[in-house]
Amino acid sequence: MAIRFVTGNAGKVREARDYLAGIEPVEQIDYDYTEVQSDSLEEIAAHGAREAFAELGSDEPVLVDDAGLFVEALGGFPGPYSAYVEDTVGVERLWQLAEAEENRRATFRTILAYADENGTETFAGSVAGTLVAPRGEGGFGYDPIFEYNGTTMAEMSTEEKNAISHRGRALATFAEWYADRDE
Ligand code: ITT
Ligand code: NA
């Protein structure tokens, strides 16, 4: 049965498809679930997945992914506000904020929330790296300024990024749970 990935972000879908190839087909659904005001990605994602599954009809499971970039020297900013910051000031400006700091460490976090008729499950993934001046044409969002082991995530193929990224790690935990679940 296809999994409906509820997101407006094609980059997330590309990564989930690549990771889940041979497990389940992934279909992108553009449904605007309520993003509850919360500092917790887990709460936002779980609520979104439950709501989408209830509202969309059909019994195909849904997946929601709520991600954020947490910059150490900026007290975790932009964190849950990462999409807003990307849309307003942009990635380059976030890099400029980090550039003024000695500590340029940052962590990407994501929560994948899965919902079907049996309920909702969440899976977390994170990766620690360093912010750098933008490099690379691949990926999306903050990938050009996020370096891991000398390479920005925008310089990686989808497969390379999945092998180390927050989303790849969450997808790995999800895939393991999905294979073992009771149908
Ligand atoms: P949906 O909510 O529709 O899924 P979105 O792009 O708004 O899409 P998020 O709120 O989860 O998704 O994303 C928070 C921000 O972090 C947003 O600016 C993304 O572009 C960025 N982002 C998420 N995952 C990323 C990744 O793997 N690499 C780089 N940036 C990422
Ligand atoms: Na979003």
Describe the structure.
With 183 residues, the protein is of the alpha+beta class. It has one domain: Maf protein. The protein is built from 6 helices and 8 strands. A hairpin with a 6-residue loop joins β3 (62-71) and β4. The protein is globular. The N and C termini lie close together (11 Å). Bound molecules: inosine 5'-triphosphate (ITT) and sodium ion (NA). The site of inosine 5'-triphosphate (ITT) has 20 residues, from β3 and α3.
By CATH reckoning, the class would read Alpha Beta
The helix tally amounts to 6
| Number of strand elements | 8
In helices, the fraction of residues equals 25-40%
Bound molecules: inosine 5'-triphosphate, sodium ion
- Intertermini distance: 11 Å
Q: If you consult CATH, what is the topology?
A: Maf protein
H/E element order: EHEHEEHHEEEEHH
Radius of gyration, whole Å:
16 Å
Sketch the major β-sheet.
Answer: 8 strands, mixed
Helix vs. strand class: alpha+beta
Report the CATH architecture.
Answer: Alpha-Beta Complex
Number of domains: 1
Which word captures the global form? Answer: globular
Subunit structure: Homodimer.
Active site: 66
Pfam families: Ham1p_like
EC number: 3.6.1.66
Key terms for this structure?
Maf protein, 6 helices, 183 residues, eight-stranded mixed β-sheet, binds sodium ion, alpha+beta
Task: Describe the structure concisely for a colleague.
The protein is α+β, with helices and mostly antiparallel strands.
